[in-house]
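Re-run requested by the PI after the first attempt was lost when the workstation crashed. Everything re-entered from the original request form. Ligand of interest: flavin-adenine dinucleotide.
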Amino acid sequence: MQYDLIVIGGGPGGYVAAIRAAQLGMTTALVEKRDLGGTCLNRGCVPTKTLMHTANVYREAGESEALGLNFGQRSYDFAQMHERKNAVTAQLRDGIAQLLKANKVDIYQAMGQIVDANTVQAGDDTLTAKNILIAAGSVPAMPPITGSDLPGVVTSDAMLEAQGVDCNKLLIIGGGVIGVEMASIYASLGKQVTIVEAAERILPPMDREISQNLSMILKKRGVEIYTSAMVSAISKAENGLTCHFTDKKGEQTADADVVLISVGRRPCTAGLFAEGFAVEMTERGFIAVDDKFVTSVPNIYAVGDVIGRMQLAHAAEAQGIAAVEYMSGMAEASVNYDLVPSCVYTTPEIASVGITADEAKKVGLEVITGKYVMNGNAKTIIEQQDRGFIKVVFDKETEQLIGAQLMCARATDLISELVTAVSLGLTRAQLTRTMRPHPTFCEGITEAVEAAAGHSIHTAPSKR
Ligand code: FAD
């Protein structure tokens, strides 16, 4: 079969690119060895957030007496929780299949192997194309820890696929986004959770205050957190597993029924290239591309987790669209990494875009900052939400918004307004004049922007 484009991988990077390519008039084939939707839909974003929603409803039901509600004895059915999650992912997978069909993208359910610059072997089918786009994604990284092959040691794949993994004591190696979201889900269900993180704080790349606050909130919910802690081994114990690690206090152990290893993801490139043909890789094994997503072979492109820049679904989608637009002759197509929002779906939620005040200081950029603590926000009080805040960072000279960090209810939705503001270069004055509805969480943005301007209607002067 002769195509204009063959896409390898049906995750957010691949299927979105395939649809855009077809819309631009390219005959397009999509080769997917597992399920449409990729990691995001089947083993990532969607299953975690579906389980998180269930776990949050369960936790909130237990905190509802103050609202005048009494649900009696709470209980949950772990298998049914996963059945619902499977139904949600199946519904969304069907939607992707229909979209691909409606856009006349040919789907090959097979392992794709690149034979040469124009040929892909997809199972028994030999496909040729002018261009090839690799969107093969990533898989969980497994560090060389003794005992990581023991039964009961799992990755996020096992926790999220099929019926998941039930347990009473969960130990998580890695306090990054996946680790803290899993901790949140299991702690909300009343499980005993321990996090062991190698860095000095959980969520190491995030704003320091966000990490510290989340740590406090998780601890309040019973999660044990060890930081600056290096795991040396996992061993079999009488009733499960023991994790051995060293932290500031010396050698430590913690017991668990299940150990989740979530220490990052590596590119999924095994078997992707036939013998004697390959594109250049980075030192860390990701596919090397230029700013137009072109690999070392000029008609082979790569996007998404497999290039290892920002392992996020919306970044993969944006890269996929930019790559096919560039192929079709739109020379300016690109992705602005300063505008990629990062979100963590814990309670409270966390979201950020652009630069933090600390990062600005490091590069010698003078900034004006504003911060609003959400304790005084009416919607936060109405909904009994946890402590939280909104921080905004403006360039001192231009007064344009260049960053925002949020930790509050619905932060993952609120961030979109601030992404728009950063992308359009909106100023402090423009953002102050924007009228936001009452009562809403987004009124906190008004307060943070006003705090940056040195006047805030709803914050007492002493607290500024
Ligand atoms: P993938 O989604 O990994 O898709 C790649 C596809 O390629 C797979 O379906 C794979 O089967 C297929 N494939 C690989 N090799 C071949 C081959 N040779 N032939 C044929 N098919 C092949 N991101 C967010 O933005 N928000 C979140 O809330 C979020 N939560 C996450 C939670 C977890 C637990 C995990 C693990 C990830 C999460 N992510 C989240 C990250 C997100 O899932 C990824 O960034 C995103 O899926 C990357 O998209 P992709 O298209 O590059 O790759």
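Saved to the shared folder this time. The first strand starts at residue 2 and ends at 8.
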